[in-house]
Amino acid sequence: YYAPHKGDSSGQLKAEALLSVTPPPQMPSTMEAGTIEGYCVGEPWNQQAVFMEIGVPVITDYEIWKNNPEKVFGVSQQWADENPNTHIALVKALIRAAHWLDAENNANRPEAVEILSQSYYVGADYDVIANSMTGTFEYEKGDKREIPDFNVFFRYNATYPYYSDAIWYLTQMRRWGQIPEAKSDSWYTDMAKKVYRPDIYQIAAKELIEEGKLAVTDFPDFTSETGFKPAQNEFIDGIEFDGTAPNAYLEKFAIGLKGEEQVD
Question: What is the pTM of this model?
Answer without folding.
Answer: 0.90
